[in-house]
Structure formats: structure tokens, C-alpha cells
């Protein structure tokens, strides 16, 4: 399956002075994971689950949960101070981490594809759904959208587990940040797969931007006297998301070519934090977290009421916002004649 060149002994942070290590950056690495994946995203998920004002589409909820798992997997050895320094007998946490992290990145990438496909489908419902899908149950649609990331994770994790069972000596921690299976073909496959998923996300992002701009132009032409302007908040979130997907694509390439650079590891550790900042800055989430500002106005009878938004959103903006809230892959019902 693998050549002798691929099965060279794994390296560890205590393997010698000539082995590059990033162990000194571990506090920063863990801090990025903890702030984004252990605090921020769980808080956001709880907000969506417990609040009636902040709604969330199942694919977006799934996206956040997957990034939480991603962060937890990469921090497993933080609970074992000797987990990265014992090449003769790797700890159970080290072995578990080596299995899990090879599935974590592909899982997160596929979850990102699911979110962008949901956004795109809101602009293409009449053409996107085939007759067979119209008859599918809502549960089947939900499973179809939520299951692929976890199935992807199982495939990569099982492959890593089989490799470790056959070649346990291939588990190492040369970066000093986490344990991994040090077989170049496997690492290359993971990196290439993630890069392909990022390319798919970018493609759908471009398609969404084109559809959004066309709807915006049509709205302006239909209502030329209406004072409308694009949502700065929404545009900024979409721009950051697309930009960071390209950064992630660059990280995948850099890790394949130069696995000892510190910056790619820090960027990967910041991904859960970026996901939290992008989706945690939605207006309805702010309304829940800043409730003392949202309910500060009173009506003519002295009752507290939420302040109104002075800017009326366009049809395209409403569709993008609705895409992250409506039931999964919902098919509009046809009117009976």
C-alpha cells in the first residue's frame, strides 16, 4: 500500500535538536482553538437553540457544531502533558488524535460546502430541484444535507485508524502541537481533498454573488424611486468568508510543501474563531446578546418595544438572510388549480 520511503519512522518534538518544533507556540495555538471552538461557537449554538429571537438553518447549526468538534480534536493532547514527548509509547489520547484530525478537516470542508449549497439553492429553487426530490420527505432532505460531513469524517478517520493499526510507529508529533499520522500520501490526500472542497465553496460563492447582484439590479429597476442600498454587514460577512476560504486553500498548499512553517498552523487554529466571528455577528444574534439595547424604546402606551430598522432590505438581501433560517432544502408547494 505504501512504499518504504513513505513508512519512515515518525518524528517527535524530543527526537533531537535538528527536529524543528513549534511547541513554544502551543499556548497561542491552544488559545485560538479555545476562544473560537470551546467558547465562541458553543455560545453561538446555545443562542440558536435556546433563543426564540435568533433562528438558524440546520446546515449552519451543523457547520458550527462541526467546527466545535474540529477544535476539540486538535486540542486532545492538551489534556496530557506527556502526550507529545513519548515516541516509544504514544498515549491513548495521542493515538486518538492522530486518527481524528485526519477526518476533522475534510469534515469541516464538506460542512462548508453544505452551507454554500443551501445559500445557492435559495436563488435556484425552480431549476435546482428535480421531480424525485419534490416527493422526498423532509427528514430525507435533512439527512441528505447534514450527513455528508460525518460520512466524510468516518471515511478518513477509519483510513487513519487502519494505517495506525498496521504501522503504529508512523504516529508522531514533529510540530509539537498535535499528534498525526506521518505518511505523506495520506497527508497529501487530506490536503488535496480540502483544497477541492474550498474550490467548490468558492465556485458557489461566486454564483451566489452573481445571483445577488442580478436580483439587486432587478429590484432597483422595478422600484427606481425606493432608496435602497446593499447591506454592509451582510456584504462584509460574505467577503470575509470567501477571502478566508482562499487563505485556507493557500494553507493547504503551504502545509504540503513546507510543513514546518508556523503561520499555517496558526491560521488553521483560528478557523473556528473566524467561523464564530462571521456567523456570530448576525443582527438577530446581537439582539439576543445585547437585549438591554434592543428593548430600550417604549411605545405610546409606555410598553417596551424593539427599535425598528430604518433601512428596508431588498428582496435579494432577504433571500440570503432567509437561506440561513428556512427549513433544510425546503421545496415550495405548488398551488392547486
From TrEMBL:
<feature type="transmembrane region" description="Helical">
    <location>
        <begin position="28"/>
        <end position="48"/>
    </location>
</feature>
<feature type="transmembrane region" description="Helical">
    <location>
        <begin position="142"/>
        <end position="166"/>
    </location>
</feature>
<feature type="transmembrane region" description="Helical">
    <location>
        <begin position="234"/>
        <end position="256"/>
    </location>
</feature>
<keyword id="KW-0472">Membrane</keyword>
<keyword id="KW-0812">Transmembrane</keyword>
<feature type="transmembrane region" description="Helical">
    <location>
        <begin position="186"/>
        <end position="213"/>
    </location>
</feature>
<feature type="transmembrane region" description="Helical">
    <location>
        <begin position="60"/>
        <end position="79"/>
    </location>
</feature>
<feature type="transmembrane region" description="Helical">
    <location>
        <begin position="99"/>
        <end position="121"/>
    </location>
</feature>
<keyword id="KW-1133">Transmembrane helix</keyword>
<protein>
    <recommendedName>
        <fullName>G-protein coupled receptors family 2 profile 2 domain-containing protein</fullName>
    </recommendedName>
</protein>
<feature type="transmembrane region" description="Helical">
    <location>
        <begin position="262"/>
        <end position="279"/>
    </location>
</feature>
Amino acid at each position: 500500500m505504501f512504499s518504504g520511503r513513505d513508512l519512515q519512522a515518525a518524528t517527535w518534538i524530543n527526537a533531537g535538536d535538528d527536529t524543528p518544533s513549534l511547541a513554544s507556540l502551543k499556548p497561542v495555538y491552544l488559545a485560538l482553538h479555545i476562544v473560537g471552538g470551546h467558547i465562541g461557537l458553543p455560545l453561538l449554538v446555545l443562542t440558536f437553540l435556546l433563543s426564540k429571537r435568533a433562528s438558524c438553518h440546520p446546515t449552519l447549526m451543523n457547520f458550527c457544531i462541526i467546527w466545535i468538534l474540529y477544535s476539540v480534536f486538535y486540542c486532545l493532547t492538551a489534556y496530557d502533558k506527556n502526550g507529545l514527548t513519548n515516541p516509544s509509547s504514544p498515549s491513548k489520547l495521542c493515538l486518538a488524535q492522530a486518527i481524528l484530525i485526519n477526518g476533522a478537516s475534510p469534515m469541516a470542508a464538506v460542512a462548508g460546502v453544505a452551507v454554500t449549497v443551501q445559500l445557492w439553492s435559495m436563488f435556484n429553487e425552480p431549476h435546482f430541484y428535480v421531480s424525485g426530490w419534490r416527493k422526498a420527505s423532509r427528514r430525507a432532505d435533512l439527512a441528505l444535507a447534514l450527513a455528508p460531513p460525518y460520512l466524510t469524517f468516518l471515511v478518513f478517520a477509519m483510513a487513519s485508524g487502519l494505517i495506525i493499526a498496521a504501522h503504529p510507529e508512523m504516529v508522531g508529533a514533529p510540530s509539537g502541537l498535535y499528534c498525526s499520522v506521518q505518511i505523506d500520501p495520506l497527508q497529501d490526500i487530506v490536503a488535496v481533498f480540502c483544497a477541492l472542497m474550498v474550490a467548490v465553496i468558492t465556485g458557489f460563492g461566486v454564483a451566489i454573488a452573481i445571483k445577488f447582484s442580478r436580483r439587486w439590479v432587478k429590484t432597483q429597476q422595478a422600484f427606481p424611486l425606493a432608496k435602497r442600498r446593499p447591506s454592509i454587514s451582510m456584504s462584509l460577512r460574505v467577503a470575509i468568508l470567501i477571502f478566508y476560504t482562499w487563505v485556507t486553500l493557500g494553507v493547504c498548499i503551504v502545509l504540503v510543501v513546507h510543513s514546518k512553517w508556523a503561520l499555517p498552523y496558526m491560521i488553521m487554529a483560528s478557523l473556528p474563531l473566524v467561523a464564530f466571528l462571521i456567523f456570530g455577528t448576525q443582527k438577530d444574534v446581537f439582539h439576543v446578546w445585547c437585549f438591554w439595547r434592543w428593548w430600550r424604546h417604549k411605545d405610546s402606551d409606555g410598553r417596551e418595544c424593539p427599535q425598528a430598522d430604518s433601512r428596508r432590505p431588498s428582496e435579494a438581501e432577504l433571500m440570503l438572510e432567509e437561506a440561513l433560517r428556512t427549513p433544510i432544502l425546503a421545496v415550495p408547494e405548488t398551488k392547486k388549480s
